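Progress against Task 2.4 (sequence-to-structure conversion) is shown through the following example record, which the project officer requested during the mid-term review.
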Amino acid sequence: MLTKKISQTLSLRLSLIVACVVAVLLLVSLAVIFNFSRQELREKAMRNGENSLEATVQNIDHVLLSVEQSAGNVYWEVMAHLNEPDRMLNYSRRLVECNPYIVGCAIVFKPNYYPGRELFMAYVRRKGHSETTDASSELVVRETFTNRPYTEQVWYTEPMTLGRACWTNPLKNDNTEDEPLCTFCLPLFGQDRKPVGVVAVDVAIELLSQIVLAGKPSPHSYSTLLSGNGSYIVHPNQEKLKKQNVFSQFATETDASLRLAAKAMMNGESGQQHFVMDGQKWYVVYKPFQRSAVAGRTSDHLGWSVGVVYPDDDIFGDYHRLLYLVLIIALIGLLLASVLSSLYTHRKLQPLNVLTQAAQQISQGHYDMTIPDIARDDEIGHLHGDFQQMQHSVVSQITELERMNSELKERSKELQQANRKAQEADRMKTAFLHQMTNQMLEPAEALDKHVATICQNYHTISTEDATREIESIRQNGNAIIELLDNMIHTADNETGKEDAHD
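Structure tokens generated for the chain above:
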């Protein structure tokens, strides 16, 4: 159980190490790839934006040039018949009819230009022009434009003051009737070369926006056109076209980047900027609106600026989705690689489990267990072979030690037996000596007694008593000598037995 746990832990750790290394390399590679991809996508979007700007400028300029040329075609006829007021309405009608972009035309003169008429206006407008650009749509003739005299309106005062053709900034709110307009104004000159009237041709900003916005470069992008005073000329939000300008939008948007982009556009700069609007990220590419040079066309700069606005999702939406998809695939791949690596590592480390189990068995005393062979020629195979050799060597050493231990035990038994016999012999010798000593004690005492008697009475003892005492001494001495002879004889016998045993 412990071996299996160790094996699983080792294979898991190896798998985690491999997975971490692969994950780091993969993440670094993906970071580099996606970073360059993001830059390339952004640059491509900006290039597309610049191309779209060019197309937007051309589309708008095409409309403006078409209106300018149509007005110019009629202008010389009006100049040739300035003194025929009845013709002016026909000229206005012809301008509206001949150009689908023109929604209205007014030919006006300075006060009292015609005797008996303080103000003169020949105004024709297209009805329902916001829904169609058909030149055959119904035309309406009006004698006034808004509730104020035309002499107080910018489309009259500006060309009369400048004395040249011009485009007005968008007319909104009280400066127009029911929709915002851009007006092309041509001053009419009298014989003294002073302005006596104006041919004003109206282009609906909403219609202009529809034409321009139809060519948007991405699904949710749009083109925008700002006038020099911050009014929207082209924008997909109709409310901004009718009422709002870029300054009023600043009051509702807090992102400073939006203000920078709007101010740069109004200053006639070129560039790109990202900003946050309505909680969403956007990119804008902008440049000044420059009209193409055409013979007879005024070269005045209108002060307009055109921009292409991209939502972040249009540029990086597929990028983000691909990034998430790749991350999910990478995560699944890492998990799969970890599992496969764990299984492969576990399989490759299986011989180590066998060796571990064998080591545990050997540690428990099973030295002669059989270690199965493996057909591997790598480091683990070499380790397995060395372990088998070590086990065989250990078995040989253990066998030799057991044999020597057995011999030592046998010798120990023999020594113990010899020791017991020696101890028994010592006891017997001691008993024998004790017995012999006891036997010699009586003759020795008697011998001592008789000798003492002779020594004490040698002056008075008779010959018979002396002879008797001497005989007793001799007998006791012989007894002691006999006992000593027996002891010597017994000692010689024991010595001979020990020599024979050795």
